[in-house]
Amino acid sequence: MSRAKVEQLLGEPDGRTILDGTPDEPGHIYYSRYEFFFENGILDAMQNDNVFPKWPEFVRYESKVFRVEPWILEVSPKPNLAQTRILLSQEKIPFKQIDDYHGGPALRLESGVVLDFDGWIDFEDNEEAEPPLDEREFLGVRYFPNR
Predict the structure, then answer these.
(1) Counting runs of H as helices and runs of E as strands, what totals does the chain give?
(2) Kind plus residue range of the DSSP H or E element containing 6
(3) How far, in Å, CA of 110 to CA of 89, rounded?
(4) How many CB atoms are located within 10 Å of the residue 110 CB?
(5) What residues contact 56, with CB distance under 8 A and at least 6 apart?
(6) What is the residue extent of each domain of the chain?
(7) How sure is the predictor about 57, in pLDDT bands with cuts at 50, 70 and 90?
(8) Strand-strand pairing, 42-48 and 138-143
(9) Distances (CA, A) of 74 to 12, 54, 107, 114, 140
């Protein structure tokens, strides 16, 4: 899907950046914290890696055209891996667990959506002990439509 088509469907983005693009064909647009990345003018990835309990507006988003209502956050403002697995199982949503997805655990849904969990902290250089996988908190959601 092209950037123009995404904008036609979702409305005017909150911003555009050149990131891997050109001034005439931005490689990155965003709606609040929902980022859309384009490669050669085609949608390559969507993500929101800003799940912070203090700022729920980073996750819940509404414009005149679309609304994101993340029901998964009804369990907790920042559900951990174990809570999320239980919720997905209760909702009969198929998933596969990935223990090391860019440094932390993740759940890949059958649809291709990836829910990833805290793992970005370098625990070796941090005074805090590395939490067990099941206790890692929800960090973000990603989708790569062409992969």
Answers:
(1) 2, 10
(2) helix 3-10
(3) 12
(4) 9
(5) 73, 77
(6) 1-69, 71-147
(7) confident
(8) antiparallel
(9) 29, 15, 18, 19, 15
Measure the CA–CA gap between 102 and 28, rounded to whole angstroms.
Answer: 21
Residue type, 14: D
Residues of 36-71 as b/e, b for ≥16 C-beta within 10 angstroms? bbbeeeebbbbbbeebeeeeeebbebeeeeeeeeee
User: What is the tens place of the pLDDT at every residue in 99-117?
Assistant: 988 888 999 999 999 999 9
Question: What's the pLDDT at 58?
Answer: 76
Residue 74: its pLDDT value, please?
Answer: 72
Q: What does the alpha-carbon distance between residue 42 and residue 59 come to, in Å, rounded to a whole number?
A: 24
Specify whether the CB–CB gap between 98 and 81 falls below 8 A: no
